């Protein structure tokens, strides 16, 4: 899955984001939800399938980003 | 970077270098080399000239040769230092500017006992206490009391931490957080990497309040049993923003310790792609890091274990291994030194990808501490160095909330007071130096009186 950013008004919900982006429940990580990453600029992020991310129109002001694994830095192997 | 500079000065100077009865200094040989800080403790050394046999190849070292130390043949070596971020420009210009410069060569550390992964502990956590003068911090009321210290990792086992510290520790379950896919109770996870990190934060800030955020235990789709996903860290940072903004503005203090990162570009978009993480300040995680710092949080990241001397086998970036948020301009990127003040061989070197001047500084690691990995295993990796530094930050925050000293000002203070390990300030091995509390305490006392 990938991360998709979207600009929304304050108090927006995951349903609002899915509606604007034209996404179905199967294409979105519902458990992850909608996360506000920059409240001052109304910027949110959600997790969507790669196929859905490819379909999203960049003209909606969205961005598609990687979601790489992260690991502890130790003990060195 | 420390360098050896080979020069061919006048025959009179070479003769003086060769004469054991005459004292010559680096300045006699190489004075006025722009951008080079000469090492006055290094006595210039004459280097003989290889002389090929008659009719031999003048450019080959693979033949029988004689060596001439005649004053008109020999050259001279001096030692100096060039700022890391100027190396690429200065090296080619030096020989163009000064015709007597024959060559510039690296002068690597040749210590036979540089600390690497798998080596036994070097000292113990009481040595770290002593080196950080934790008693002095406490005398100034800087013990972390009331400061929230978030550990984003594999979860904390508080009982283990308390048992090995030999004193009480505080963990706030209410303000802790875990991804939806993680089962467990804050403070009651299996003893692992996160427990080591929590222990190490409390070395310098024994009265800080731990927040447990086990993002590396996520089982979200796309992850594995041994790691988390960056999206979990995004959600954790969003929670921490709520924690921070719920605090009264006049006493706001939140320190965030991150001993993790991305080892490989395999799961990332390529550099230059708009969705890339490693080199892209617009990635959502890098945005939320900047946003949380703007709100007043102190964010620390381990520099990583991809140092050139003995890198972790998982390191897959071909160069510049301090990537993504670990190299963010608004975080402190922490490298590792052992308690002998020597850089551990696995500590990642700069430049960073988002911000070049990384690591910012170094803190102590590879000491016997939490015993989270067994009685004989050290708290190691820059994973241990990061929470040690986070403890120092939390100690400062006891009396200096973000309204009195912004996170940016605190980073400058830590860099300015670090014990410089080179002669030119910043370098890509140690950053600005090793975190040192004496200078911090002096500066805070001056600031309090101002």
From TrEMBL, chain A:
It comes from the Bacteria. This is Uncharacterized protein. It comes from Planobispora siamensis.
From TrEMBL, chain B:
PROSITE patterns: SUBTILASE, SUBTILASE_SER. Gene3D superfamilies: Peptidase S8/S53 domain. Keywords: Hydrolase, Protease, Serine protease. SUPFAM superfamilies: Subtilisin-like (SSF52743). The active site is at residues 153, 193, 383. PANTHER family: CEREVISIN-RELATED, PEPTIDASE S8. Belongs to the peptidase S8 family. This is Peptidase S8/S53 domain-containing protein. It comes from Planobispora siamensis.
């Amino acid at each position: 899955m990938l991360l998709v950013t979207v600009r929304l008004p304050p108090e927006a919900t995951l349903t609002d984001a899915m509606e604007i982006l034209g996404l179905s429940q199967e294409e979105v990580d519902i458990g992850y939800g909608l996360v506000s990453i920059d409240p001052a600029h109304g910027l949110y992020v959600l997790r969507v399938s790669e196929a859905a991310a490819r379909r999203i129109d960049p003209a909606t002001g969205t961005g598609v980003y990687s979601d790489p694994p992260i690991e502890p830095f130790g003990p060195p192997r | 970077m420390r360098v050896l500079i080979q020069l061919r000065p006048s025959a009179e100077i070479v003769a003086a270098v060769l004469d054991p009865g005459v004292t010559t200094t680096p300045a006699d040989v190489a004075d006025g080399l722009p951008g080079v800080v000469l090492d006055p403790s290094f006595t210039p050394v004459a280097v003989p000239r290889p002389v090929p046999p008659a009719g031999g190849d003048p450019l080959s070292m693979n033949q029988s040769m004689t060596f001439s130390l005649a004053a008109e043949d020999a050259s001279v070596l001096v030692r100096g230092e060039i700022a890391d971020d100027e190396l690429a420009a200065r090296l080619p210009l030096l020989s163009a500017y000064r015709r007597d410069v024959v060559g510039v060569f690296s002068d690597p550390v040749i210590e036979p006992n540089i600390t690497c992964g798998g080596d036994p502990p070097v000292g113990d956590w009481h040595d770290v206490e002593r080196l950080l003068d934790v008693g002095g911090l406490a005398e100034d009321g800087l013990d972390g009391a009331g400061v929230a210290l978030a550990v984003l990792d594999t979860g904390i086992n508080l009982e283990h931490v308390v048992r090995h510290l030999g004193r009480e520790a505080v963990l706030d379950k209410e303000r802790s957080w875990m991804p939806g896919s993680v089962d467990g109770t804050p403070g009651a996870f299996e003893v692992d990497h996160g427990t080591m990190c929590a222990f190490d934060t409390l070395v310098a800030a024994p009265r800080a309040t731990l927040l447990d955020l086990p993002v590396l235990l996520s089982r979200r789709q796309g992850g594995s049993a041994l790691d988390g996903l960056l999206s979990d860290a995004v959600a954790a940072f969003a929670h921490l923003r709520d924690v921070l903004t719920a605090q009264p503005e006049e006493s706001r203090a939140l320190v965030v310790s991150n001993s993790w990162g991305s080892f490989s570009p395999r799961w990332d978009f390529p550099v230059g792609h708009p969705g890339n993480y490693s080199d892209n300040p617009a990635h959502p995680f890098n945005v939320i890091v900047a946003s949380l710092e703007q709100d007043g949080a102190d964010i620390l990241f381990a520099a990583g274990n991809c140092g050139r001397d003995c890198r972790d086998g998982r390191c897959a970036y071909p160069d510049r291994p301090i990537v993504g948020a670990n190299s963010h301009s608004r975080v402190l990127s922490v490298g590792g030194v052992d308690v002998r003040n020597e850089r551990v061989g696995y500590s990642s070197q700069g430049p960073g990808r988002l911000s070049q001047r990384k690591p910012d500084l170094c803190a102590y690691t590879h000491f016997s501490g939490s015993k989270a990995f067994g009685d004989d295993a050290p708290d190691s990796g820059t994973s241990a160095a990061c929470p040690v530094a986070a403890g120092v930050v939390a100690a400062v925050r006891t009396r200096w909330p973000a309204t009195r000293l912004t996170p940016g000002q605190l980073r400058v203070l830590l860099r300015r007071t670090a014990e410089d390990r080179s002669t030119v300030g910043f370098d890509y091995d140690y950053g600005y130096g090793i975190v040192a509390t004496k200078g911090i305490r002096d500066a805070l006392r001056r600031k309090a009186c101002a």
